[in-house]
Amino acid sequence: MEITGTLLHLLTPQTGQGKNGPWKKQDFVIETGDTYPKKVCLAAWGDKIDLGKISIGQSIKVSFDVESREYNGKWYTDLKAFALQPLSKSTNAEPDQPFIPSGPVDDDLPF
Predict the structure, then answer these.
(1) pLDDT 10s digits, 12-34
(2) Contact (CB, 8 A) for 32 and 69
(3) What b-and-e string marks burial along 46-70, b requiring 16 or more CB atoms within 10 Å of the CB?
């Protein structure tokens, strides 16, 4: 899944030791640019994403997975970011438009 928004907060990185070895996680909050903006907290695990190359207030596009797990009868949902792309000020959140030539096209295709 993908979401675009403005980076609001970089939360304090967390580290720990699990049964599979050491782990590192940093949560960050973005705000969508929808009619009714929403704040969304996502997690960057390990070294997959370098959050140092983005700054507060910057527009970004985040690719993430949604995962839920049960613990002691309660369910918890994580939004795990696996890719992050800074967006320039001229880039909008709309998908790329197909290229349409502006002039006549001279091709010799039979169909």
Answers:
(1) 999 999 888 999 999 999 999 88
(2) no
(3) eeebebeebeeeebbbbebeeeeee
